[in-house]
Amino acid sequence: MRVRTYTRHMTNAARGRPRSESVRRSILEAARDLIAERGYQQLSFQAIATRSGCGRQTIYRWWASKALIVADLVLEGQLTLPQQPVPDTGSLDVDLTEWLERITASLRDPAVAALTRALISAASDDQGHAQLLYAMTTGPYHQGLVDRLARGQSLGQLREAADPAALADALIGTVLFRTLIAGAQPAGASAVIRALTAP
Amino acid sequence: MRVRTYTRHMTNAARGRPRSESVRRSILEAARDLIAERGYQQLSFQAIATRSGCGRQTIYRWWASKALIVADLVLEGQLTLPQQPVPDTGSLDVDLTEWLERITASLRDPAVAALTRALISAASDDQGHAQLLYAMTTGPYHQGLVDRLARGQSLGQLREAADPAALADALIGTVLFRTLIAGAQPAGASAVIRALTAP
Amino acid sequence: MRVRTYTRHMTNAARGRPRSESVRRSILEAARDLIAERGYQQLSFQAIATRSGCGRQTIYRWWASKALIVADLVLEGQLTLPQQPVPDTGSLDVDLTEWLERITASLRDPAVAALTRALISAASDDQGHAQLLYAMTTGPYHQGLVDRLARGQSLGQLREAADPAALADALIGTVLFRTLIAGAQPAGASAVIRALTAP
Amino acid sequence: MRVRTYTRHMTNAARGRPRSESVRRSILEAARDLIAERGYQQLSFQAIATRSGCGRQTIYRWWASKALIVADLVLEGQLTLPQQPVPDTGSLDVDLTEWLERITASLRDPAVAALTRALISAASDDQGHAQLLYAMTTGPYHQGLVDRLARGQSLGQLREAADPAALADALIGTVLFRTLIAGAQPAGASAVIRALTAP
DNA sequence: TCCTAAGCGAGACGGTACGTCTAGTCTTATT
DNA sequence: AATAAGACTAGACGTACCGTCTCGCTTAGGA
Questions:
Q1: C or N terminus of chain C, fewer CB within 10 Å?
Q2: What range(s) does the HTH tetR-type domain occupy (chains A, B, C, D) (predicted)?
Q3: Which pTM does this prediction carry?
Q4: Which residue has the higher pLDDT, B15 or D107?
């Protein structure tokens, strides 16, 4: 991920023609669109170059693999599970179910599903960056979930033995796995919520 | 998967040289070994043919895609999460934790991890066969988990509101997702178990 | 040069799809035309494939380098100095001058010049095949010249000390060098002839 | 070849930073060494820049093509057939044979052969500058040969009908052609000498 | 002493071609 | 027919150069 840009900052030399920001954006946009249209597996450097109108070498110069392009898409915020804030109506049960519904609704959009699936493929593809990509994918709403679970726990809506961070991970994992890989409704997550929050 | 073989049975004509079973097995074995060694993404028809010593066309004749070869590997029982029976010592908490430990232990074997990851990639790759591949992957131990959860529930070790089938799905999903994609320890699953089974 | 075809003959197995003669010819024709149009240096596997309508790999399968394609063009007789028989009117002086004139006339055709220059470039380029290419280039008329010189010598029109084979080489070398590399009229060759044959 | 420098003289403005003579020399030296090591075909602007430590643009600024760099190498005297004076012992036959031996001996040095071959390639490559490059290559010893031949002719060691200039050209052409392109011993030239100078 | 013009190292950019690999399809002889 | 063999078109891979284009820095007059 822009390791070279980082190096530049280190040496603060800034020699030579500066990197073109517009080219960088057009590459990321082309990659995003191609993933949405045909999926991560079909994505190729060639196709990105053709679509974005740049030379193939320009992509190789900045990204070592498809997985790292996907990582940059995440950093750009162009590729995440939609940022769904967890509501707080006072009832943990109701709020988690509502959040779950919103997440699954947005995953019904083929483009969003394709982009998220790309993240999973990228992580599965490239074990060296798996944790990075995983953190990028789940990070944004992990914290929101943890906070909401902890608030519910302090009100006695979640038993003491439950670890909010672990539960948040399990909920996200279950949703993504069921929805994107199994291609099924994430009924399990909803049931888990009920099992956890039942009095 | 072997659609043509099926057609044969229908028309019961069976003219010409019969399909070679030994070739079929050597192809599947070659595919299995190549997945274990280099992963699903790197798997190619070419490499399978070379390794198994058959002609490339023979593979194309019987399998339309890499994903369907993986499906056959599952049918052959050469490619699944290891068949871990859920123990029953009387304590649901202890038994689930034990099962979880065994599963994660077997996933630490790189070959097993690669084969399982291949199933996930194949399902993610080929949406048309996603549910089939998903069922093949999780089927073997899904039922065992459901049974054990139901027994615990009847003994009051799991609250009434929890649906054993949904919980089984969530546990499996969480384990696979965390272990294979995130490349992390499936701490979440363990915590979920504690949260669910705490008195 | 068609080493693999030769191997085929050796093992006389002839398994698999046989090589397409029409493709082979279209490749050689495309190469010949491209050399005539743009020169040997500009010739590329890419361009040959595009022009002949074949896949690039097909060319790599049969020829390891541009130089060897040129060698095959020679074997095909599509690429030589034009086959000019040395006349025999009885006067060595007159006949050699006549032959020289015909050769230089045909080299004034840009296509012929380009093809012959390609042979020289190929030999200069690829030291490993230099002698082969040289023999291919000069072979066809070398013998004719030697014969004519020997006949003249036996009639006393060429001094005894002159070696016909060496003189033939020198004449050809001088013509090609002057015409193709220096881009000048091969006045030298004509003068050498006069010097040699003067009484 | 340094067209811009010439322009400078015309406008006698000479503003801005003057051309660096040290950079110019390091570029020519790098080109010379690379030709000696890997040949003219493999020579690239890129490699010259890397080896000489200058920017690529600096080379493009002053030379339009590889062939013109070679031309400058000749002007610098860094790239010619070795300057072999033609001896004069009184016997034309002996002297020419001696000269021929020296020339071929120096061409046995791979670096000298590579540099000379580069000149031929450059001339063959770039028809626009062919005569220039040819003149640069042969010029230095052409005159020496002509002089020696004329002296021999005046002593009756060479028949009257022979044109010294044309014979010099033929000798040089034969040597270069046989040695550098055919990769063979220039036996022909030696035989031509004997044929010409025999009583 | 500043200003302006040009040379220079560096390196990004759109390209073309390389040589290799794989995908699918096809055409042989053999089994 | 199925099989091994392998040629064929197609196209992606990652690399190397091409020729062009900015950049910041340097080095010289001339103002």
A1: C
A2: 21-81
A3: 0.85
A4: D107
